[in-house]
Amino acid sequence: MARDPDAALMLAFQGGDEAAFRALFEKHGRAMMAFCQRFVKEPARAEELAQDVFLKLYRSADRYAPSARFTTFLYRIATNHCLNEVRRGEYRHRPERDPGGDEGEARDPDSLAGEGASPEEELSGRALEDSVRALLERLPEKQRAAFVLARFEHMPYEEIAVVLATTVSSVKSLVHRATVAAAAALAPWSPDAGGKAEP
Amino acid sequence: MRHVASELTALVDGALPEGRRAEVEEHLAACAECRAERERLAAVGRVLSALPAPPEPPPGFEQRFYARLAREKASRPSLRERILRSPWRWAAPAAGLGAAAAVAFGVAQVRRDRLEMARHLDLLENYVVVASLDSVESVEDVEVVEHLHELSEGRP
Question: Taking CB atoms and an 8 Å limit, are A117 and B9 in contact across chains?
């Protein structure tokens, strides 16, 4: 654990080194926004949530013990925060922002597709995004969190168990049930189901 | 051997212990139904890998965060202000009332010795805090509770 460079930065921050905190944000902030995006629709709200997570990290730095990986600590804060947001559901009622405004770039649908994608690939990518989002919104919250951590953050079950404060056995069940639901919801996208790009 | 559907996601994720993995794979060799289910579950990972990369945050992502951090640091209220705004603010007078009640109780029961009364005081003061722990939602709440006595003492 002592070799975890993020843990070393966190310890430096505990010692008063603000530059260490900035280094952590610069390393993980964008990935955190992507993580939050799995829980809310609007990119601007995802950015706000990612900021909230790092503000919480800033305030609770003294609770970090280097026995835990830094990312485990970070994603535990983030998962709790995002699930609280999903429970409150306030973001669903927020008005859409003006696409021509300052936040417009965040909502640019073209930005959903990877660079260099053809128009067909962009359309297909956006439709797949929509299907995945619909799937995530239907999942019970713990399944959703476990699924996102396993499939998008590629965390091992043991680490997910720490993040969700549960057992590995429970994580195994949560991930499995979510994956069964995903297999049904995303079957039309499977190359094995005829290589169909769009359902 | 019974079907192993509930183990197949963990198998695909490489999360089964060695011994169990061998048993499940042995079953798969003989069970077409479970093999088909494994393929169905494994396909989820392949579909998700086809998702476009997450969108980059708009320019100024770091700067907006640092500006917010600076604003929050500058505007963070003092501990005394946080106590006064906190739903816990009632706890200080309640603790005081509890202590007063305990004193009255102690006076009425003059026959009890001072040590006994001090124990009641301690108990009543702690009760106010402990009975409300379900409401503690954040580390800030705990911090507020820990410093409640400063409010009645008039310290910042």
Answer: no
What is the distance in angstroms between the Cα of A128 and the nearest Cα belonging to chain B?
7
pTM of the model: 0.69
A1-93 belongs to which CATH class? Answer: mainly alpha
Query: How high is the pLDDT of residue A170?
Result: 97
pLDDT tens figures, B79-123: 555 555 566 666 666 666 777 776 666 666 655 655 555 555 554
Minimum CA–CA partner of A182 in chain B = B44
Domain ranges for chain A, please list them: 1-93, 119-199
Q: How far is CA A197 from CA A24, A191, A194, in A?
A: 38, 8, 9
Residue showing tokens 């949530």: A49
The domain segmentation of chain B, as residue ranges, is: 5-49, 73-153
User: A119-199, what's its fold?
Assistant: Arc Repressor Mutant, subunit A (1.10.10)
A63 touches B at CB < 8 Å: yes
Residues whose CB is less than 8 angstroms from the CB of residue A183 and which lie 6 or more positions away in sequence, other chains included: B40, B41, B43, B44
Distance from B95 to chain A by nearest Cα, in Å? Answer: 28
pLDDT tens column, A103-112: 333 333 333 3
Nearest Cα of chain B lies from the Cα of A145 at a distance, in angstroms, of: 16
Helix (H) or strand (E) holding B28: helix B18-30
